[in-house]
Write a structure and sequence with these properties.
The structure holds three protein chains of three kinds. Chain A is built from four helices and no strands. By secondary structure, chain A is mostly helical. Chain A folds into two domains: 1-47, no CATH class; 59-125. In chain A, helix 3 (65-89) runs antiparallel to helix 4 (96-119). Chain A is flat, with a radius of gyration of 26 Å. The termini of chain B are far apart. Among the domains of chain B are: 1-77, NADH-ubiquinone/plastoquinone oxidoreductase chain 6, subunit NuoJ (Four Helix Bundle (Hemerythrin (Met), subunit A)); 125-164. Helices cover 71% and strands 0% of the residues of chain B. Chain C is mainly alpha-helical. Chain C has a two-stranded antiparallel sheet with strand order 1-2. The chains are: A mainly alpha, B mainly alpha, C mainly alpha. Chains in contact: A-B, A-C, B-C. Chain A binds chain C through residues 93, 95, 97-98, 100-101, 111, 115, 118-119, and chain C through 1, 3-7, 24, 27, 31.
Chain lengths: 125, 178, 492
């Protein structure tokens, strides 16, 4: 690889590739549909397929709050990981005090998790 | 260099604009994620790898998901009945432009930033780690406390209250196959 | 890599560490011991652990202070900050005691008290920070705890409204402040206050520094509820659970004003003075306008309030105006400002305590609900008299000396117009404080004799605060001397 290209070029290429992989089949299907089956919607055609039932009400249901609580806890620990990374990288040159410090940092959050667990908010009733 | 910057700027500003203007809330959330992705790219482009990847990890990976969950939780889907723009939007735009103008003027006429080409600081993760564990170790602990308080508070506020829990026990979980 | 003495850090941050551990212990006690008990028992259980922790922390800080600096301003423990920390812990202690009252039934008392303690820890870190990064982090930590405390009562839509408003205003102003701090870093290349000051002095009249100052003033203006950024205050003071509102009104104000003054006086003090023109530096004009508008709007709006908590909110806005005078007076005003803020915090927590008693018994905090209070609780009514008169600034009480010293410093610093305005609005404020007292003493009531008795902790706390306000008023030197000595040692 040349030195003046951005190190993220490969990432970008991969991302574009991933996007294409997702979009191209959809586009092709669309094209196919346009040429092979011109849209002629009708009441009969749009009806629920054969023995299906008419849907009632809104398809949107309220999520359980548990999903949200899990997401919050995930977010908190996600942020924690961000701080763990630099610690891990510079681990070799650190003193014992630094190790204790990061342990306190970890314990604070673990304590939060234990609390949530004991509180019963993690149980999925 | 500047082409990348343009693309990223379009991504960030376009995403942010779409997040404000799109009619469906869930689309707004996704547009916001796009904007955050652009921001991560901007950090990477400025050689701040750590911040860039942290941005990607936290904001695209977690905050965006949290926002989507919040939308699903509140059932806030469905277009707003009220107009997207309130009556005072012209004033808002005016104020925003004014602030932008003042900021731009200040940055352009600043002597502190003009002239000297600041060498791009390449903060390696290792240096960040060293500083974080020495001079800024207290900041690290305060962040830990902050996260703990946030966890506590968010769970307490999001948790169904005791009375609501017993109340909803009569018609539980029939909507839970989502 | 510089070597860091972690033990030294632990020593310096011992009070904060202790309070944090107490907070965690409160959580554990509430979960383990309090499981299955009645809410009242749980409140007493976790509350007494929290109160004991506060007492021990205050005692430890007072009797065995450790002085020193960690990592160039991340944590500065000098006599002044220790003094502020002691008062913060005491204010938190009183808040905890207020929460024993049954004004707002707490669904999760353990978490509530733990968050109160966390907020206090945040304020203590904020007090001793001389590094802009640390200032921001501590401010966020405090604010976050306070947002949750404001929204804690989930049964009440008002509490939720208070929490959401506080959070929205708070996060936007925090964003502005962070923007301002980043600009400061951009201009000066440092986040440590002394170096920032040097950098700003070098930069001279740089427009970017001014923009940064405006943004920082915005962030702090929100925290202290000064006028253009005060909109959240009435709703939060009214809607939040009373102990939360009391802490927001007192402790948060003490810490924020202290840091605001420190940032402005140390950081911007010598900086953007227009060279050669002799004109007042921009920050003086800016803060002067904020102070004037706060005094006028706060006092006038308080006149027409029906809800006592809203009245206290607008009075808080007015007091923020007076306190800004102290900041305007620069180093001269620093000591008076500290005295003023501490005594103000004490009287405010007391006033909120009395309101909580009334609210628990009548279900609301309108002025007319206070009628008959004197006949039912004569001693507590007298406490309220002391708090209100102190807030109004009547001579033998602490509020008078606070105002006196701040106003004197303002005159010395040459802001005569603001001084006259402050004096005029102070007299206006007497009217609405007396309005509350009038209801308490001569208001006509149907019958207040069936009101339940006040929990002993609340009465003790109220008596202690009233005693403190009177004592500091009769002997202002008790506190003021300490402040002056501490200021001299720290080199202000």
């Amino acid at each position: 690889m040349q030195t003046d290209t951005s190190p993220y070029l490969l990432l970008l290429v991969l991302m574009v590739g991933a996007l294409l992989l997702a979009l191209v089949p959809i586009g092709l299907a669309r094209l196919w549909a346009l040429t092979a089956s011109p849209p002629k919607p009708g009441a009969e055609k749009n009806a629920i397929y054969e023995c299906g039932l008419e849907s009632k009400g809104d398809a949107w249901v309220q999520f359980r709050p548990q999903y949200y609580i899990y997401a919050i806890i995930f977010l908190v620990f996600d942020v924690e990981t961000v701080f763990l990374l630099p610690f891990a990288v510079s681990f070799g040159g650190l003193s014992a005090g630094a190790f204790v410090a990061i342990m306190i940092f970890l314990l604070l959050l673990v304590e939060g998790l234990v609390w949530a667990w004991q509180k019963g908010v993690l149980s999925w009733k | 260099m500047s082409v990348t910057l343009c693309i990223l700027a379009i991504l960030i500003l376009g995403g942010a604009g779409a997040a404000m203007a799109l009619p469906r809330l869930i689309h707004c959330a996704l547009a916001l994620a796009l904007s955050m992705a652009g921001l991560a790219g901007l950090y990477l482009q400025m050689n701040a790898q750590f911040v860039g990847f942290a941005q990607a990890l936290v904001y695209i990976g977690a905050v965006a998901i949290l926002i989507v969950f919040a939308i699903l939780l509140t059932g806030g889907e469905g277009t707003a009945e009220v107009g997207r723009f309130y009556g005072s939007w012209r004033m808002g735009v005016g104020i925003a432009l004014g602030v932008l103008g003042v900021l731009g003027l200040a940055v352009l006429s600043s002597r502190a930033l003009a002239g000297q080409a600041v060498p791009v600081p390449e903060a390696q993760v290792r240096e960040i780690g060293d500083l974080l564990m020495t001079d800024y170790v207290l900041a690290l602990e305060v962040i830990g406390l902050l996260l703990t308080a946030a966890l506590l508070g968010a769970v307490i506020l999001a948790m169904p209250s005791a009375s609501a829990r017993t109340g909803s026990a009569t018609h539980p979980a029939k909507d839970q196959d989502a | 890599m510089s070597s860091i003495d972690y033990l030294r850090l632990l020593q310096l941050a011992a009070p904060e560490t202790f309070l944090t551990l107490t907070g965690l212990m409160v959580l554990a006690v509430d979960l383990i011991v309090g499981r299955g008990s009645a809410p009242g028992t749980r409140i007493i259980l976790s509350g007494s652990v929290a109160a004991t922790g506060c007492l021990l922390a205050a005692g430890g800080l007072f009797l065995l202070p450790v002085y020193g600096t960690f990592a160039a301003g991340m944590l500065v423990a000098d006599p002044l900050t220790v003094l502020i920390k002691v008062s913060l812990v005491i204010l938190t202690l009183f808040t905890v005691l207020l929460a024993f009252s049954d004004a707002a039934p707490l669904a999760d008392p353990g978490e509530y008290f733990a968050l109160l303690l966390f907020a206090c820890v945040g304020m203590m870190f904020l007090t001793s920070a001389e590094d802009l990064l640390m200032v921001f982090l501590a401010l966020e930590f405090t604010s976050l705890s306070l947002y949750i405390l404001a929204a804690f009562n989930k049964q009440s839509p008002h509490s939720t409204e208070a929490g959401i408003k506080y959070f929205l205003f708070g996060s936007i102003s925090a964003a502005f402040m962070l923007f301002g701090l980043s600009l400061v870093y951009g201009v000066t290349g440092s986040v440590q206050l002394p170096e920032v000051a040097a950098g700003l002095a070098r930069a001279g009249n740089d427009p970017l520094a001014l923009v940064a100052l405006v943004m920082i003033a915005m962030g702090f203006g929100f925290k202290v509820a000064a006028v253009p950024f005060h909109l959240w205050a009435p709703d939060v003071y009214q809607g939040a659970p009373i102990p939360s509102a009391a802490l927001i009104a007192s402790g948060s104000k003490v810490a924020s004003f202290f840091v605001f003054a420190k940032v402005v006086v140390i950081g911007f003090g010598g900086a953007p003075a227009a060279v050669g023109s002799g004109a007042a530096p921009v920050w003086v004009i800016l803060l002067g306008i904020m102070a004037a508008v706060s005094m006028i709007l706060g006092n006038l709006a308080a006149l027409v309030q029906v809800s006592v908590r809203r009245l206290l909110a607008f009075s808080a806005i007015a007091h923020a105006g007076y306190m800004l005078l102290g900041i305007l007076a620069g180093t001269e005003g620093f000591g008076p400002l500290v005295y003023y803020v501490i005594t103000y915090g004490l009287a405010t927590v007391g006033a909120f305590g009395v309101v909580s008693i009334v609210q628990a018994r009548t279900g609301s905090d309108r002025l007319c609900d206070f009628a008959g209070f004197h006949r039912r609780f004569p001693v507590l009514a007298f406490c309220m008299l002391i708090f209100m008169l102190s807030l109004a600034g009547i001579p033998p009480l602490a509020g008078f000396f606070g105002k006196f010293y701040v106003f004197a410093a303002a005159v010395k610093a040459g802001s005569l117009a603001l001084f006259i305005l402050a004096l005029a609005t102070s007299t206006v404020s007497l009217f609405y404080y007396l309005q509350v007292l009038k209801q308490i003493y001569v208001g006509e009531t149907a019958d207040a004799s069936h009101w339940e008795p006040v929990p002993i902790t609340v009465s003790v706390a109220l008596l202690a605060m009233a005693f403190g306000v009177t004592l500091l008023g009769c002997f202002p030197d008790l506190l003021l001397n300490r402040i002056t000595i501490a200021l001299r040692i720290t080199g202000f």
